[in-house]
Amino acid sequence: MPNFVTRFAPSPTGLLHLGHAYSALLAYQAAKARNGRYSLRIEDIDQTRCKPAFETAILEDLEWLGIEWEQPVRRQSDHFDDYKAALASLRERGLVYRCFKTRKEITDEIARAPHTTPEGPQYFGAPLAPSEEQKRIDAGEPFAWRLSISAAKKLLGKKFDTLCFRERNSNGDIQEVKAAPDIFGDPVIARKDAGTSYHLASVHDDALQGITDVIRGTDLASAAHLHRLLQELLGYPEPIYHHHQLITDDAGNRLAKRDKSMTLRSLREGGATPSDLIARLGL
Ligand code: GLU
Question: Residue 144 belongs to what domain range?
Fold first, then answer.
């Protein structure tokens, strides 16, 4: 069994840009250097924003970069039942509750009683009374499932306050970071439209695919606080994280999928070679 397994997990909502190339290559080089495994996961639970054409473009771009990944590629939209089962395990233990509120209702509630962290405002809710809940279910009202931070705290006791995740810095040293699992309030674990969420699908798949090392951008560093809690609640192993710097444009702005000039496709069409990009990214 290789003791280093990593992945690249793009969402096919647009063309990959230079920042994605950095993330994909950094993880690929790490896997190579440690004689480990590298897999590709298509995170397409958002079926309105994700498009098959972007998935095809992702494979084409990664191949062009010279990256090789294991087969089969895991496509999350083929596995909604897996996420449903993970959600059921949380439901059975009273760790989640139905939330019928609209985005506007949540925003108004937060404005009335603000709890804010650097990640943004936190929302803590509670389940409805069973009769009221049943009425709304019968009326066909859509709902999301939220993780109850207070129920998780109760279940885990002291463990909740001492949860940590391991972060590897760019020198390779590992540090223990104290987790703040309530960073997002009671997070949506299963969206109204998707029946799961990025958080649930991601920790589920990292466990299923035996990922030992999660390598991704610092824009997702805060998610690790919640992911660590989900791993604990679901009995999943704990990977080591490396949240790398983000690639920015000349003005220092983070690249976005809408910045057409930085997409791998347009760089390639402009004559750039994979080695040009690897050198430009300092890899
Ligand atoms: N699908 C996420 C994205 O494209 C990455 C998730 C992850 O690496 O955990 O931003």
Answer: 79-202
**DSSP output for 64-119:** HHT----SSPEEGGG-HHHHHHHHHHHHHTT-EEEE---HHHHHHHHHHS--EETT
Question: Atom 3 (ligand 1): residue with closest C-alpha?
Answer: 10
Distance CA 3, CA 28 (A): 15
pLDDT digits (tens, 9 = 90+) for 108-138: 888 887 677 777 778 999 999 999 999 999 9
Amino acid at 274: P
> pLDDT of 254-279, one tens digit each?
877 777 778 999 999 999 999 999 99
Terminal Cα-to-Cα distance of the chain (whole angstroms): 27
Query: Ligand 1 mean position to 188 CA, how many Å?
Result: 17
pLDDT in tens, 168-203: 998 999 999 999 999 999 999 999 999 999 999 999
For strands 174-178 and 188-190, give the pairing: unpaired
CATH code, domain with 180: 3.90.800.10
Instruction: Check if 220 has its Cβ closer than 6 Å to any atom of ligand 1.
Output: yes
Residues 108 and 67 in one domain: no
Burial of 239 (0-12, 13-18, 19+ CB in 10 A): buried
pTM of the model: 0.94
Closest CA to 125 of 188, 181, 193: 188
DSSP conformational letter for 52: H
